[in-house]
Design goal:
Structural class of chain A: mainly beta
Number of strands of chain A: 11
Oligomer: heterodimer
Number of strands of chain B: 12
Distance between the termini of chain A: 32 Å
Distance between the termini of chain B: 41 Å
Strand content of chain A: over 45%
Order of helices and strands of chain B: EEEEEEEEEEEE
Largest sheet of chain A: 7 strands, mixed
Structural class of chain B: mainly beta
Shape of chain B: globular
Helix content of chain A: under 10%
Number of helices of chain A: 0
Radius of gyration of chain B: 14 Å
Helix content of chain B: under 10%
Chain lengths: 111, 114
C-alpha cells in the first residue's frame, strides 16, 4: 500500500458542486500539505497543517477549505467548484520541513 | 518568506550531453533544498536533498547538485543525459522552523533529442 493515499484519483464534476479530496498517510508525519499543479505554473501551496490543531493558508487558498481530522488524514474541499479549479492536486507529508512524500495525485475536472 | 526561481522554463539537450538546471532561492536562514522530478503522467519523485554538511550532494539516477550559499543557488547537474531523463524538474526549499513550509519553483521542462 502507498504511504500517502489520495482519493479519488480522478473526478469530473460540474460548476457549483461541492467536492472533497481526501488524503491519508501511514508515515506518521506531523506535517501535511495540499498542492495544486497547473501546466507551466509548477506546484502551488493551497493549505498546510503542522498538526491537528494547526491549519495554515498557502499561496492560493481562496475557494478552498481543509480539515485535519486526525494526524493521518487531511481533506481538501471545494465548496462550490468553478472551471478554473480544474487541475492536478497533490497531497504530501513531511517531518519537520524535511523532504516531502507525495501521493499519486487527484485529477479534478470542473465542467 | 521563502521563494524559489528556476530561470529556464524549457531546456532541450542531446542524449549524452551534459545538463545543468538552475535554481535560485530566497530565504533568511539556512534552507533545506530539494530537487524533484516528475515524468509525464506521474507523481513527484525526490532526486536529491541538501540539509547541511557537504555542499555537493549526490542523488539518484546519476544526478548531483551543489549548494552555493553566496549565490543562493542549488543547481542540478548530470554529466550525460539519457532519453529517459526527459521530464519536469522542480526545485524546492523548506526549513526546520515551526512555521516554514516547502515551496516549489515553477519547474523546468527537459526534452532530450536522440
Amino acid at each position: 500500500d502507498a504511504d500517502v493515499t489520495q482519493t479519488p484519483r480522478n473526478r469530473i464534476t460540474k460548476t457549483g458542486k461541492r467536492i472533497m479530496l481526501e488524503c491519508s498517510q501511514t508515515k506518521g508525519h506531523d506535517r501535511m500539505y495540499w498542492y495544486r499543479q497547473d501546466p507551466g505554473l509548477g506546484l502551488r501551496l493551497i493549505y498546510y497543517s503542522f498538526d491537528v490543531k494547526d491549519i495554515n493558508k498557502g499561496e492560493i487558498s481562496d475557494g478552498y477549505s481543509v480539515s485535519r481530522q486526525a494526524q493521518a488524514k487531511f481533506s481538501l474541499s471545494l465548496e462550490s467548484a468553478i472551471p478554473n479549479q480544474t487541475a492536478l492536486y497533490f497531497c504530501a507529508t513531511s517531518s519537520m520541513g524535511r523532504e516531502l512524500f507525495f501521493g499519486e495525485g487527484s485529477r479534478l475536472t470542473v465542467l | 518568506a521563502q521563494s524559489v526561481t528556476q530561470p529556464d522554463i524549457h531546456i532541450t539537450v542531446s542524449e549524452g550531453a551534459s545538463l545543468e538546471l538552475r535554481c535560485n532561492y530566497s530565504y533568511g536562514a539556512t534552507p533545506y533544498l530539494f530537487w524533484y522530478v516528475q515524468s509525464p503522467g506521474q507523481g513527484l519523485q525526490l532526486l536529491l536533498k541538501y540539509f547541511s554538511g557537504d555542499t555537493l550532494v549526490q542523488g539518484i539516477k546519476g544526478f548531483e547538485a551543489e549548494f552555493k550559499r553566496s549565490q543562493s543557488s542549488f543547481n542540478l547537474r548530470k554529466p550525460s543525459v539519457h532519453w529517459s531523463d526527459a521530464a519536469e524538474y522542480f526545485c524546492a526549499v523548506g526549513a526546520e522552523t515551526s512555521y516554514d513550509k516547502v515551496i516549489f519553483g515553477p519547474g523546468t521542462s527537459l526534452s532530450v533529442i536522440p
